[in-house]
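Hi R.,

Here are the chain sequences for the assembly we discussed:
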Amino acid sequence: MDEFSERVAVVTGAARGLGAAYARALAERGAAVSVLDVLADQAEGVAEEIVSRGGRALAVETDVSDRNAFGAAVDATIRKFGQVDILINNAGLGTTDQTHGVPWYEWPGEAWDKVVAVNMRGCFFGAQAVAPHMMERGWGRIINVSSATFWSPVAEAVHYVAAKGGVIGLTRALSKGLGNHGVTVNTLVPGLTRTEQMDGMYPPEVFEQYARMRSIQRDAVPRDLVGTALYLCSTASDFVTGQAFIVDGGHIFD
Ligand SMILES: NC(=O)c1ccc[n+]([C@@H]2O[C@H](COP(=O)([O-])OP(=O)(O)OC[C@H]3O[C@@H](n4cnc5c(N)ncnc54)[C@H](O)[C@@H]3O)[C@@H](O)[C@H]2O)c1
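And here is the predicted structure of the full complex:
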């Protein structure tokens, strides 16, 4: 039997990159997957691909920083598949036009708010949307995605680093309220990982430099994150909650 055939997962930011890799991996193992993203067409493309391979998927155009929109997307998932067991809060935003290449002390407040809203508030709204339902069912998995930049920060991404640190605090506090209801909350922490977006952002030398700093001296690719994500979605992690899992080939040591 497929390990996740009884499960329904919501994956945010799943139209591309790491989120699409989590969505595909869960679907390949039997889960029904809701693909949430602001990129409606690309989210639809991922869902169609999953369905074309015999899987179950739904695409929902969703801005995770909008509480009502997130709630509506979870409701649509429950209408379609009957339940939600897993939420991967993966949607993220590294910078904006107002902050990219601009010194942080000149950033307007709304640029700070935007990055923090997507990366951190979105995780909170996701938890709000699924927690009552998961508690009622007595089982659930919430995985919040942070970043190794919280351990290895850069000034150009003050807003992002602060938000990704907040995600770790959020995870810890949420785990306290949900543990006795069978719902675990953990943080997945990728290091620099080659996705289309990252390849567009950095020259090859940057990836080479990161690879040299790792115990496992090679590029990180999306499938490197998938195993830990699946573990955190599974019953194998039943007694693990409030924790952060750094998956970076041995670069940051916490
Ligand atoms: N790739 C890396 O090197 C790396 C490293 C550390 C952490 N991360 C984190 O992993 C996650 C995925 O990263 P990725 O590299 O795949 O990035 P990506 O940009 O390819 O994917 C992020 C997805 O989130 C979506 N998104 C952005 N704002 C949204 C919003 N308001 N509502 C819904 N969806 C929204 C985007 O459209 C995109 O599909 C992010 O949270 C990122 O911060 C990535």
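The two ends are 37 Å apart (CA to CA). The chain has one domain: 8-247.

Let me know if anything looks off.

Best,
T.
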